């Protein structure tokens, strides 16, 4: 380091420079860090356990952020009253509440009916000082250890939520912060300031923890009419910290509204930069303020996007790809480049009335619902962009959508190509009809993490296995895999067998029991594992409806049972059972895995030895999307959905024969249906028997599953080629 422009060096600096030559830290003679440098080198702390002391199991926390001491960023408290709860408080909730991670409303007395979507805490007393005291005590008791910042505002305050959140990200959490609009006490010390409650104020977690022991003393010793003055005096007297309007380079901008203010006409810089505006007299003014500031924020976002796009254009010429590497739209990911013909993303063709790629597989269907709204919006956006680019020289209006194409690119979003028949009108009134092709992109927005309820891998899984006469050849393998992967490993899983007798077999069960062999295998398992009991239920029916079978099983188990509805070809393993536990959430989500179906080895290998190396895992087969035989769900969720189904169909039991459990949850529950490929469920090839007594759709799906499970197209082509070669010779 050198100071100034002269030749004289600071002696201390010169000494340090010599000591730090080469960037090394001072070290002792034995190579260890010198004095005061211990924190700069990592050191290994050897693990040692006293053999004389009993081993104690370490209890881990539920969430890793708890173990690491992480806190949520911001908690917001809104002070309201019984008189304004259904007016101003509702306006606050509709304008800014969804922008804050956690927001609670505090009042003295509550009305008979609390507005929907608001979390309200009533203290039972309308006195302002008491309300402030109880609110601070409640925040410390319930949220003091969970959040870093606490923002307190009134219901007659409009706060720019995004600006407040940005403010706390620039402040250090290691400092006691009391930030807001600083006001002088009436007749008090000029140096002491309190934060005006009407404009909101920010308190750090460290300040709240230090303040809490003194709240009782403040309540008994400090007399004040205003709650914000009372809190400010409490903080100053016991902690010596005054309110500030600027801290660590961040300013808390506020604006005081005058009577009959028109937010749309306010052009003062102080108003445009305000984080909080006060007083807001009615709900309409609150909504107008929110509209105005939202428009300002949107304009700033668009301007920032344009600036970033300009910077990208300027820097593109300096990249190895040059200007040719500039993608459209600027700043959006480039389109996906397929590596083979199987990765090409197809375009869907549409008009203003019809869609030619339908969800049910039909070639043409009416454009309706969200798809119709999407097409209308994209056409309006195209016209708006054309007019903004060519006006006032030309003004465009739509005559007709000639062709429309769209596809979803997972790397960037939804892409559109429109062929529009337009009428262009010049400034002199001359019109001309022309066709114009435009391309648009609806980019993927910011990824949002959806909070999910907590689940564990310790839940007991109740396997349910329906068996028919056609399944007898595969039961032995199922029971062997179940014993090896669950009973031997002591996994928390139970098994219930469901024997489905044909009426003819049921009449002869006393002479010849078709399931006698299976019952003998179950008896052998129970002898081998003395603590295990495998119950079975016998059912007589010609049409084994999945819903009717589950009705019988559901009544024989508690409501909190986690069911795994399996098939006889399923190979149970611990990996899948854990995913079944994690992906199934009571009163929230059900899980329908898509199993991996291996191809027919006679067609795939054609007499050659089957490949068994680990590199060929999930190779010669496909995920069977036509099968809904496997499912994980809670009994309580099934019973709720089944009750709604019963009320809908009344006594029409024949309807149940055309439904599966998946249909029950899809149409008669508000739960999330999690449908995903499951590599842990691998099934060997077997030709399924499709019951013609089932509905046409279920029978068709079963046949299609058998056909697609034969082999891949390349394997089928080779088999046909070899057959033709054999026939020709």
UniProtKB/TrEMBL annotation:
Keywords: Glycoprotein, Golgi apparatus, Membrane, Signal-anchor, Transferase, Transmembrane, Transmembrane helix. The keyword Cell wall biogenesis/degradation does not apply. Residues 11-26 have a biased composition (Low complexity). It holds the Pfam family CHGN. Transmembrane segments: none annotated. Its main location: Golgi. This is Hexosyltransferase. It is a single-pass type II membrane protein. It comes from Ibidorhyncha struthersii. Its EC number is 2.4.1.-.
């Amino acid at each position: 380091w050198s100071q100034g422009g002269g030749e004289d060096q600071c002696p201390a600096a010169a000494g340090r420079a010599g000591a730090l030559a080469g960037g090394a830290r001072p070290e002792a003679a034995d190579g260890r860090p010198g004095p005061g440098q211990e924190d700069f080198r990592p050191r290994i702390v050897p693990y040692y356990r006293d053999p004389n002391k009993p081993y104690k199991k370490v209890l881990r926390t539920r969430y890793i952020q708890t173990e690491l001491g992480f806190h949520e960023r911001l908690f917001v408290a809104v002070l309201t009253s019984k008189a304004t709860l259904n007016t101003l408080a509702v306006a606050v909730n509709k304008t800014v509440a969804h922008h804050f991670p956690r927001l609670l409303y505090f009042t003295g007395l509550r009305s008979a009916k609390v507005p929907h979507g608001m979390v309200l805490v009533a203290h039972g007393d309308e006195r302002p000082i008491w309300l402030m005291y109880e609110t601070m005590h409640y925040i410390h008791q319930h949220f003091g250890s969970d959040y870093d910042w606490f923002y307190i505002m009134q219901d007659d305050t409009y706060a720019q939520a995004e600006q407040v959140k940005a403010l706390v990200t620039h402040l250090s959490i290691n400092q006691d912060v009391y930030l807001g609009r600083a006001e002088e006490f009436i007749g008090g010390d000029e140096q002491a300031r309190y934060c005006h409650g009407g404009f909101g104020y920010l308190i750090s977690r460290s300040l709240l923890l230090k303040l809490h022991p003194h709240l009782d003393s403040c309540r008994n010793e400090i007399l004040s009419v205003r709650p914000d003055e009372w809190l400010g005096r409490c903080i100053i007297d016991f902690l010596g910290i005054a309110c500030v309007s600027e801290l660590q380079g961040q300013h808390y901008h506020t604006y005081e509204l005058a009577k009959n203010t028109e937010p749309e006409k306010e052009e003062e810089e102080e108003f445009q930069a305000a984080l909080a505006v006060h007083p807001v007299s009615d709900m309409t003014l609150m909504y107008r303020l929110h509209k105005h500031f939202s428009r300002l924020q949107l304009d700033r976002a668009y301007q920032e996007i344009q600036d970033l796009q300009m910077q990208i254009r300027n820097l593109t010429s300096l990249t190895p790809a040059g200007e040719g590497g500039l993608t459209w739209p600027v700043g959006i990911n480039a389109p996906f480049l397929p590596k083979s013909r199987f990765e090409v993303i197809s375009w869907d063709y549409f008009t203003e009335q019809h869609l030619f790629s339908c969800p049910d597989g039909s070639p043409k269907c009416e454009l309706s619902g969200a798809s119709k709204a999407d097409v209308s919006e994209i056409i309006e956006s195209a016209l708006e962009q054309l007019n903004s680019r060519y006006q006032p020289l030309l003004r465009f209006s739509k005559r007709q959508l000639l062709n429309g194409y769209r596809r979803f690119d997972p790397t960037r979003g939804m892409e559109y190509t429109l062929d529009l028949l337009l009428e262009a009108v010049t400034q002199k009134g001359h019109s001309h009809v022309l066709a114009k092709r435009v391309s648009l992109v609806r980019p993927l927005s910011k990824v949002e993490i959806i909070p999910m309820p907590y689940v564990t891998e310790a839940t007991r899984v109740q396997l349910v296995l329906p068996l028919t006469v056609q399944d007898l050849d595969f039961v032995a393998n199922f029971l062997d895999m179940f014993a090896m992967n669950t009973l031997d490993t002591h996994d928390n899983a139970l098994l219930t067998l469901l024997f489905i007798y044909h009426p003819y077999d049921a009449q002869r069960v006393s002479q010849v029991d078709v399931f006698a062999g299976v019952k003998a295998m179950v008896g052998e398992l129970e002898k081998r594992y003395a603590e295990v009991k495998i119950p079975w239920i016998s059912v007589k029916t010609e049409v084994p409806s999945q819903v009717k079978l589950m009705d019988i099983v559901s009544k024989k188990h508690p409501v909190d049972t986690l069911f795994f509805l399996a098939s006889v070809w399923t190979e149970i393993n611990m990996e899948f059972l854990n995913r079944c536990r994690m992906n199934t959430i009571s009163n929230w989500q059900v899980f329908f895995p898509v199993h991996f179906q291996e191809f027919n080895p006679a067609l795939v290998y054609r007499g050659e030895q089957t490949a068994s190396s680990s590199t060929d895992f999930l190779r010669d087969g496909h995920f069977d999307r036509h099968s809904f035989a496997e499912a994980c769900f809670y009994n309580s969720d099934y019973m709720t959905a089944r009750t709604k189904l019963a009320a809908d169909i009344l006594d029409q039991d024949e309807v149940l024969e055309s439904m599966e459990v998946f249909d029950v949850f899809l149409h008669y529950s508000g739960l999330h249906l999690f449908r995903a490929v499951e590599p842990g469920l691998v099934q060997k090839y077997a030709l399924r028997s499709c019951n013609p007594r089932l509905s046409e759709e279920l029978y068709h799906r079963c046949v299609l599953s058998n056909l697609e499970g034969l082999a891949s197209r390349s394997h089928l082509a080779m088999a046909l080629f070899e057959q033709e070669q054999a026939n020709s010779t």
